[in-house]
Amino acid sequence: MRIPIGAKPMTSPIPIITNNIDKFFTPEPAMFAAAYLKYVQSILGSLDTAEISRFIETLLASRERGATIFFIGNGGSAATASHFANDLAVGTNEYSKPFRAISLTDSVPSITAIGNDFGYEEIFVRQLRVLGKKGDLLIAISASGNSPNLLRAFDYARVAGIKTVAITAFDGGVMRTQADEGIHVRTELKEYGPAEDVHMVLDHLVAAYLMRFVRLQEQR
Fold first, then answer.
1. Which residues of 98-118 are buried (b: 16+ CB within 10 A; e: fewer)?
2. Which domains are assigned to the chain?
3. 14 burial via Cβ count (<10 Å: 0-12, 13-18, 19+)
4. Gap between the Cα atoms of 218 and 94, Å rounded
5. Which of the 8 DSSP states describes residue 66?
6. Of 108, 104, 146, 139, whose CA–CA distance to 125 is shortest?
7. Burial class (CB in 10 A: 0-12, 13-18, 19+), 133
8. Distance between CA atoms of 79 and 74, rounded to whole angstroms?
9. What is the pLDDT of residue 72?
10. Bridge partners, residue 102, by sequence
11. Residue 3: its pLDDT value, please?
12. Mean of the pLDDT values across residues 141-168?
C-alpha cells in the first residue's frame, strides 16, 4: 500500500510477541477454528470457581447496601464493561432492589472532554470522583492489568473507601496486585482474543446466575 506524500507511516508501539495462537495458526480456516476453540476451552477450564463465587457474593453485597457498581475498561474491555453493566442493571430484571451498575466507558462527551483537557489517564478517575462514594464498588476489566487510567481510578478508590475488583488476563499486571479481589484469566501475553472471549463468558455466567438467584429470592 502506497503512503501519500507527506504522511507518516502508521506503526504500533506494541511489540509483536509470539504466543500460543501463533503456534497453532494454520492457513486452513476449519483447522484454525478447531484449535482456537480448543484453546479457549482450556482457558475456561483453568478458571478459579472460588474467585467467581467471591465476585458474585461481592455483587450481591453491593446490591444489598444500595451501592453503585462502576465498570471501567479500554478498547474491547470497554465494550465488555458496558455489556456487563447492562446485564446486571437491566438483564437481571430486578427493580425493587436493583443492581445499580453503570459503565464509565459510555459517556463519549465526558471521556473526550476529560481526555482533551486533562489527559487520557484521567478519563475514569474524574468521573469516579463525581459519581462515586464510600461503599461503592469499582470493577476494572483489563487483559494486561497495566493501563494507567485504570490504575489511577484504583488509586482514588483506595482512599475513597470504594472496593475494587480486577478482572484480568496475561500475568494480571499491577492491577491484580492492587485490587481487593479479582478473577484472573490465565493466558500468555498479548492473547487479547481468548482473554476477552473468556471475560465475556464471565459476564454471561455471572448475569445468568444473578438473574435466577434474584428470581428465587422473590418466590420465597
1. ebbbbbbbeeeebbeebeeee
2. 48-219 (3.40.50.10490)
3. exposed
4. 10
5. T
6. 104
7. exposed
8. 8
9. 98
10. 70
11. 63
12. 98
